[in-house]
Design brief:
This protein has 15 helices and 15 strands. The chain has about 525 residues and is an alpha+beta fold. The strands form 4 sheets. It has a 6-stranded antiparallel beta sheet, with helices on both faces. A 5-stranded antiparallel beta sheet has the order 8-7-11-10-9, with helices on both faces. It has a two-stranded antiparallel ribbon with strand order 12-13. The longest helix is centred in the middle third of the chain and has 46 residues, at about 305-350.
Length: about 525
């Protein structure tokens, strides 16, 4: 399409101001209804023909450093050569004063201009499209030129001063569309940035409103606590607290601290997952306020430190056990020899007494206590001694069964039914002597816990049962299970206990093949 300007003295040559206002209103509505930059540009390209001769329109924006112009929209009635994505240097070009001073540039003969400036690549490209004249206006935002709008025609010398005034309004509306697009793009970038943080952060990011209800729930929060965003959003923050904690001061401690100080940093708190597991989390939180300074909630970042704290406790426990082991070895050696002397002396005294001597009962009791002390000393030495398994191929079921057969004849085991099930053909690499000691300790504990053949259970803190010298027995040393754990650890395995109050206690041993 070639649109020629109307002759200024022809009937109806001037388009009414009403039509111009109508077009400007249409562009304004388009922008207000949220049209993107391309839609606004296309509206201008389609409806400006009645007011201006052109065959091509393009919009270019400068970069932040004002070094280059980038074409962001271009349309023509023919093939577009100088199109979207093209960029050119501003410095030294005829557009530099236009951008610096807000001038309008009119070139009524592009061929002549190109002959004078053969280095102008952009002029050469639009001439290739068949354009012969151009009119360029700056896009102004807050008085600063941020780009330009090009109008080009296949006819030379068509642009006149009367075109400029109306086009300033058109380009002004286009500048508004550009500014809005930049704001929308900036908002989208920030939104995507925040969404990326919420999606990829390993920590839980949770935003809570003034009523203590969850408003934002990150992917990290889902991974840590188990609730999906659909399940968590809208729920009270108490969702993450154990039932017994919700009515205590712990439930409001974090909220009150944030309200008072404006923030808290790295506070350790106990939390509960969807499946009921207890976690230790490290929380940092910041008070959120509106423009009036009123509290509207808080943002929280929670990091699961359960494993870290467990490792710290295990390190402390290991260090403590090392100290205890060294002490136990020293004490045991200091006691063992005198104890052997005492035992021998008592036995000599007993041999010199008549069978009906009433003192023989007392001597027997003394010997019994000496044997108890000797057992304790041997356990201390076993606990202190480094364990290095002598590995060999072992039939695990046979090893376990052999130990039970050895213990089964004792009176306390008569009413206990022994069952072994599972993979009875499993074989492992281990030290059969040490592992037999594991089974002996565990089975003997079970026998002593069931004197009537029934199920006798005690609520035991699982952590304590592996601690040296902890026992619920009146005649126990508290070293059996710690020794068991050392043996299992030395085999690269693990042992754990599960106890149901007043029901049963189960020990699980895993030994790698």
């Amino acid at each position: 399409m070639v649109v020629n300007p109307m002759s200024s003295d022809a009937p109806g040559s001037r388009v009414s101001e009403h039509a111009q206002v109508h077009l400007l209103e249409a562009i304004t509505r388009k922008i207000n209804l949220g049209a993107n930059l391309e839609d606004t540009f296309n509206l201008i390209y389609d409806r400006l023909h009645a007011f201006l001769p052109y065959n091509r329109i393009a919009v270019a924006l400068s970069d932040e450093r004002r070094e280059r112009l980038f074409i962001i929209a271009a349309n023509s009635d023919g093939k577009v050569v100088l199109g979207k994505g093209y960029s050119g240097t501003i410095a030294g070009s005829s557009l530099e004063p236009l951008l610096r001073e807000g001038r309008i540039r009119v070139i009524n003969d592009l061929q002549e201009y190109l002959a004078k400036k053969p280095s102008s690549d952009s002029t050469r490209l639009i001439v290739r499209e068949g354009m012969k004249s151009s009119l360029t206006l700056p896009l102004l935002i807050d008085g600063q030129a941020v780009g330009v709008m090009f109008f080009s025609s296949r006819t030379a010398g068509v642009y006149r001063p009367e075109h400029e005034e109306f086009l300033r309004n058109i380009v002004g509306h286009m500048a508004i569309a550009v500014e809005r697009a930049r704001l929308v793009d900036g908002l989208r970038e920030r939104t995507e940035y925040l969404e990326n943080i919420l999606e990829n952060s390993l920590d839980a990011i949770v935003v809570v409103d003034a009523h203590n209800r969850i408003k934002t729930w990150s992917e990290g929060a889902r991974r840590i606590f188990g609730y999906s965003a659909q399940e968590a959003i809208g729920q009270p923050y108490d969702l993450l607290l154990a039932e017994e904690v919700r009515q205590t001061s712990e439930a409001t401690r974090l909220q009150e601290a944030v309200q008072k100080n404006g923030f808290v940093r790295r506070i350790e708190c106990a939390r509960q997952t969807k499946d009921g597991r207890r976690l230790l989390v490290e929380i940092s939180a910041t008070l959120l306020k509106d423009k009036m300074g009123r509290s509207i909630g808080r943002s929280c970042i929670a990091r699961d430190v359960t494993d870290v704290k467990n490792m710290q406790r295990e390190l402390i426990r290991t260090q403590s056990l090392a100290v205890v082991g060294e002490m136990a070895a020293t004490v045991a050696h200091e006691i063992k020899n005198p104890l052997a002397g005492i035992s021998g002396a008592i036995q000599v005294l007993a041999e010199g007494m008549a069978k009906n001597d009433g003192r023989r009962e007392i001597v027997g009791e003394i010997l019994d206590q000496v044997r108890r002390l000797d057992t304790t000393v041997r356990d201390l030495l076993d606990f202190a001694r480094p364990i290095t398994p002598v590995r060999q191929d072992i039939d695990l079921a046979d090893c376990i069964t052999a130990v039970w057969k050895m213990l089964a004849p004792q009176p306390g085991a008569k009413s206990i039914r022994f069952v072994i099930e599972g993979d009875l053909g499993a074989r492992i690499s281990g030290d059969s002597h040490l592992l037999r000691q594991v089974w002996v300790n565990l089975f003997q504990n079970s026998i002593e816990a069931m004197p009537q053949g029934g199920e006798l259970s005690a609520r035991v803190t699982v952590d304590k049962i592996w601690r040296p010298f902890f026992t619920t027995k009146t005649r126990g040393t508290g070293l059996g299970l710690p020794i068991v754990k050392k043996i299992v650890d030395a085999h690269g395995g693990r042992i754990w206990c599960e106890s149901e109050p007043h029901k049963r206690t189960s020990f699980f041993v895993e030994i790698p093949q």
